[in-house]
Each structure stands twice: as structure tokens, then as C-alpha cells.
Specification:
There is one protein chain. This protein has 159 residues and is of the alpha+beta class. The protein has one domain. It contains two helices and eight strands; from the N terminus they run ββαββββββα. It has a six-stranded antiparallel beta sheet with strand order 3-4-5-6-7-8. The protein has a two-stranded antiparallel ribbon with strand order 1-2. Helix 1 packs parallel to helix 2. The longest helix is centred in the C-terminal third of the chain and has 31 residues. The protein is globular, with a radius of gyration of 19 Å.
Length: 159
Amino acid sequence: MTNQNNLGVTLRKKPKTNLKGLLLLYEKNYMKIKEIIPSYQDNLNISYLLPEGSNNSKVTLEFIRESKHTSTLVIKQSEFSNKKLTSMKIIVAIYHDFKMAEVRKFNGKQLFWARNRYPNKNMFHKDEKFQWNKFLSEWLVFSKKQGLAQILKSFYALR
């Protein structure tokens, strides 16, 4: 959409970034991570299996404490039954004081902006950052529904 001002110059409206929706998604991801890993410990490392058809893929969660208010969660999923699929690695920054969790890297790629110009050299979608965090949200729900919460309860009971 264009507007005409008194000088005869055409101005374009910049696309709006859904920052409110992105921040809400960060908060939801934090709550979902807290449901799966209720108590954070330095260098916590958990492995489990997720169903993949008739087989399972291996998931590893590694929790690294960086500071009093910030931690990093490294999620790796590998050993897929479909050999065409490559391993997945998500690095999540967890901000304890803000109660937010943000995907920082997805399969080695990193984004800074909430909205990208399109087209771009990396072929990121306009709202790629939102899409990564939405994927994390859905992946966490899938992990919890497939019995991860029960595995972790027994894991913490043994400690």
C-alpha cells in the first residue's frame, strides 16, 4: 500500500513484525521446558527415545548453566529410522528472570532479526525466527505426550 504526501513522494508502509506474538511464544516455550525439566541443574544431560513409526529416534537434552539468570539448553535428535533425515540440533537460550526461552540456533544456523528481508541469501522466510520457536513449541508438546514426563519423574526420583 502506498501513500502520497504533499511533496509527491510515494512512501511504503513497512511490514509489521508480530513482536507480541513472538514474546508470547517465548513465554510458552519456557513453561513447556519447565514442565519437562522441572529443576535445572548444572550440566544436566538426559537421553530418551521418541517414537518414529515402528522405530525410535534418540533425543539428548543437555542443560548448561551460563549465569545466574541465563542458561542454554542443547536439544539433539538423531538416529532416525529414515536414513534420509539428518540429525536435528536446537540451541535454546533460557532467560530465568524473564521466564522466556528463545531458539538461538537451529541446525547450525543463527538469526538475529525477528523479521527478515525476502528474498535473502540464506533463503530464510520472513518470519523464520517465529517458525523456529513455533517448531520448538510443537516438538516439546510431542515429547511430553510421548511419555517423556513419566521418564523424567522416574529419573528425578532415582536421584
